[in-house]
Every structure is written in structure tokens, then in C-alpha cells.
Specification:
Length: 431
């Protein structure tokens, strides 16, 4: 059978280039334009990478039209129901679900790396008490690079795996210290007799004066949120981690770059922005007016937690979180007026022609903040929670990139629209 290809012809020069088409396991085929510049002297132009596949990957697949999300082939619904965050991390990093012995070994190694160097605790003191936690987290995560000079050879697969374990193991510690510094609470060392999620909640919420007893409902909800946020294909922060990594940068600094990107409210920062939006709406009776503003092109208001570059259907993660939010509020007997506003806002938007025609549905961030709120996590800590989960995906994607024989530095081109060449004029002669 003939190999599929696409021929691109320049109708001015008449020159053509035949570009092979690669077909993956799922998803749209991709046109390989590697020879385009060599043959036609042209680049492609695709702001926001709307039609560009930046890499080959075997980690996550999502079908935006059908609302499907698979990690290493496993549907997110099954992982959310049956797995744990630590097991999903293993799956992302290693490619297969672990057997019992492998899971024990993985859990043990993660525990062995849960501490941070004592020095690192002092980094927090350099931040103002009211610094945004994402700013602190990006800083301290990059600072972790300072401690592992002899075990961060990015071309050594064992070092790469060790780095993945360290990132996954230390992130709860880094995030909890961020919260405790902001709240004026003493830092808490990890207690490795507790499992991963419980240990994180313990470091976040225990008091030095009281025994800490974890709430199983809260642990389940947190485990679910971590699984749902663990990876999401080539999103902005993951692409940032890959791009930084492609320059052979230090992996902890690459993850820090991912944290910086995730902070933006078009990305992970949306979970914080959703709560601010619901607070601004304040009452069910104000929803229609707010939705009208989100539709008005002269108003820069958007419905936060709505829309997605890839999903043109209900985000499967949002479906799971919506139900979990219901269950959590019921089981904790919490009356949350904001949940009511969120549900009514969703109903109104989903019946509105503006949102229907643009295929704008609630995304993962629409309901996640409501769960974090029910767990007493302050709004400014929502995006660090996302970062904690996504660090597993970031490091798995970084490892995959470095293990790929075709790996090259990422270096996009541009369409230059600036001034033509001109001569320097001395300041006294300038008008
Ligand atoms: N509210 C109102 N209008 C919207 C929204 C929204 N939330 N999202 C998109 N639109 C409109 C947009 O104005 C445009 O309209 P038109 O065609 O008339 O110009 C159309 O829908 C297409 O939007 P776009 O900006 O071209 O879409 P994009 O793929 O570049 O952006 C997005 C995707 C997620 C940045 C955007 O939908 C958005 O800003 N949503 C709100 C922020 C948010 O919830 N972000 C979390 C994303 S999911 C989790 C994560 O990735 O971290």
C-alpha cells in the first residue's frame, strides 16, 4: 500500500514538496513538514499551535470531540474509580500499571525521598508573607536543583528515574511548606508511616499541639483530584517543560518553568479564577447578567472554567469532578451556596447559543475549586494543588522526550513583521 503523503505546492515558484503523513494509534494523522524549509524555503505559521503536533508521545491521548482521556491506554474514568495517585504516577512514568511488588517498591522509594534538604526550608523566609504561593513554589522547586549535582545527568536513564521519584516525592513537601509559610504555621516533616495523600494532608493541616487524624472522605477526594490533574497531553505547561528540557536544562528548573506556565489563569490558574468569579456573581439572580458580559466582545470577562483548546465536548474530568463535588458536599453535610451558583451557571451557559455554537463546556477547573474549598484549602493554594498533581505528568513527559532518539532542541521560527534594515543614527541627530 502506498504510504500516505501530502504535496505542498507554492503557486508562485511552482516548486513542490511531498510531505509524508504519519498515522498514530489514535487521533488526527500528522503531516511531516521537516523538509518544507529545505525544499520550498518556507515555514508554517500556527499561532497557539492549534494545528501543530510538537512531539511523538505514548503517554496520554485525548479526543476532544468525543470527550475521551486515556493515560497509557487506560480511561480516566477507570483510573479515577479504581487507582491511586501514586499508582497513576507509576503508570505515567513507567508505561505500565505496576504489579504488587513493583507498586510496593515504587511507594517505598517515593517515601524515601519525601524529605527536602534542611537548607531549602530557609528559602521560604526570603518571600514576603503575602507572596502568591505559585511564585514561591516556582522558586523553591528550581532551588531543589541545588542539591543533586551528582545524580542529575540527564543522559543517564537511572538518574532520570531518580529525578522523577524525587519530584513526585518532594512536591507535597514543597507545596505544604508554601501553605504553612503563608499561614504563619511551623513546617511539618513528612511522616512516612502515612501513605502519600495522607502524608500530604498531614504536612498541610496538622497542628504541632494536636494529634492528626485524617478524614477518609477528604483523602478520597484529594486522591481523585490528584489523579484527574496528573497529565493532559501537550498542554501549555507540559510543552514548556519539554521546551526547557530540550535545551538540556536541569529537570527541577524545567518543572519550575512548568509551574510558572500553569499559574496563568487561561491554564491552571483558572481554578482560583472560578472561585473569584462565583464570588463576584454572588447570587443565582446575577448569573444571566454575568453570562451576558462573558458573551460581550467589548468586555474582557470570560466564563472561567469554561472552554478548552481540545475539548469540544464535556471535559471527562469535569464530569467526574462534578459528581465528586456533589458526593463530597453531601457526605460532609456542607451547604455551599457557591455550588448552587456553579450548577445554575453551567445550566444557563449550556443552553445558550453563544456557548453551544462555540462548543464551550465546563472544564476540569470549573468544579475542582469547590472541592478544594470544602477541604478547607485556601483559594490561593488551588493552583499549587494542580502543580503537585501535574508534576507527575511533567516529569514523565520530560523522561519520554530525553529517551526519544530523535530529540532535538525546540526552536520555533517566526514571521518577522518588524522594521527593514536601517542605519544607526547618533542620539543628537534623532528627531
Ligand atoms: N468565556 C466566553 N467566551 C469564550 C470562553 C469563555 N470561557 N472561552 C472561549 N470563548 C470564546 C472566544 O471568545 C472565541 O469566540 P469567537 O470565536 O467569537 O472569537 C471562541 O470561544 C474560541 O475561543 P479561543 O480563545 O479561540 O479558544 P482557545 O482554544 O484559544 O482558548 C481557553 C482556550 C481554555 C484558554 C479559553 O476557553 C478560556 O480562556 N477559558 C477560560 C479559562 C479556563 O477555564 N482555563 C482552563 C482550561 S482547562 C485546564 C487547564 O488547561 O489548565
Amino acid at each position: 500500500m502506498a504510504t500516505r503523503s501530502v504535496t505542498i505546492t507554492d503557486n508562485v515558484s511552482g516548486k513542490s514538496v511531498e510531505c509524508p503523513v504519519h498515522v498514530g494509534e489514535y487521533g488526527a494523522p500528522v503531516i511531516d513538514i521537516k523538509n518544507l524549509y529545505k525544499e520550498l524555503g518556507m515555514f508554517t505559521f500556527d499561532i497557539g499551535y492549534a494545528s501543530t503536533a510538537s512531539c511523538r508521545s505514548a503517554i496520554t491521548y485525548l479526543d476532544g470531540e468525543e470527550g475521551v482521556l486515556l493515560h497509557r491506554g487506560y480511561p480516566i474514568e477507570q483510573l479515577a474509580e479504581k487507582s491511586s495517585f501514586l499508582e497513576v504516577s507509576y503508570l505515567l512514568v513507567n508505561g505500565e500499571l505496576p504489579n504488587a511488588a513493583q507498586l510496593d517498591d515504587w511507594t517505598h522509594s517515593i517515601k524515601m525521598h519525601s524529605m527536602t534538604h534542611e537548607h531549602l526550608s530557609r528559602f521560604y523566609q526570603g518571600y514576603r508573607y503575602d507572596a502568591h504561593p505559585m511564585s514561591v513554589l516556582a522558586g523553591v522547586c528550581a532551588a531543589v536543583a541545588s542539591y543533586y549535582h551528582s545524580t542529575t545527568d540527564i543522559y543517564n536513564p537511572e538518574h532520570r528515574l531518580m529525578t522523577a521519584k524525587r519530584i513526585i516525592a518532594k512536591m507535597p513537601n514543597l507545596v505544604s511548606k508554601t501553605y504553612r509559610y503563608q499561614s504563619g504555621l511551623p513546617f511539618v516533616y513528612p511522616d512516612n508511616s502515612r501513605e502519600y495523600v495522607e502524608n500530604f494532608m498531614y504536612m498541610m493541616f496538622s497542628w504541632p499541639t494536636e494529634p492528626y487524624v485524617a478524614n477518609p472522605v477528604a483523602l478520597r477526594a484529594m486522591n481523585l483530584l490528584l489523579i484527574l490533574h496528573a497529565d493532559h497531553e501537550q498542554n501549555a505547561s507540559t510543552s514548556t517543560v519539554r521546551l526547557a528540557g530540550s535545551a538540556e536544562s536541569n529537570p527541577y528548573a524545567c518543572v519550575s518553568a512548568g509551574i510558572a506556565t500553569l499559574w496563568g489563569k487561561a491554564h491552571g490558574g483558572a481554578n482560583e479564577a472560578v472561585i473569584e468569579m462565583l464570588q463576584e456573581i454572588g447570587d443565582v439572580k446575577n448569573i444571566r447578567k454575568f453570562v451576558d458580559r462573558a458573551k460581550d466582545k467589548n468586555d474582557n470577562v470570560r466564563l472561567m472554567g469554561f472552554g478548552h483548546r481540545v475539548y469540544k465536548n464535556y471535559d471527562p474530568r469535569a464530569k467526574i469532578i462534578r459528581q465528586a463535588c456533589h458526593d463530597l458536599l453531601d457526605s460532609m453535610n456542607l451547604d455551599q451556596p457557591m455550588f448552587e451558583i456553579a450548577m445554575e451557571l453551567e445550566r444557563i451557559a449550556l443552553e445558550d447559543e453563544y456557548f453551544i455554537s462555540r462548543k464551550l463546556y465546563p472544564n476540569v477547573d470549573f468544579y475542582s475549586g469547590l472541592i478544594y474549598q470544602a477541604l478547607n484549602i485556601p483559594t490561593s493554594m488551588f493552583t499549587p494543588m494542580f502543580a503537585l498533581a501535574r508534576s507527575a505528568g511533567w516529569i514523565a513527559q520530560w523522561m519520554e522526550m530525553l529517551g526519544d532518539g530523535d530529540f532535538r532542541i525546540g526552536r520555533p521560527r517566526q514571521l518577522y513583521i518588524g522594521a527593514k534594515q536601517r542605519d544607526y543614527v547618533a542620539v543628537a541627530q534623532r528627531k
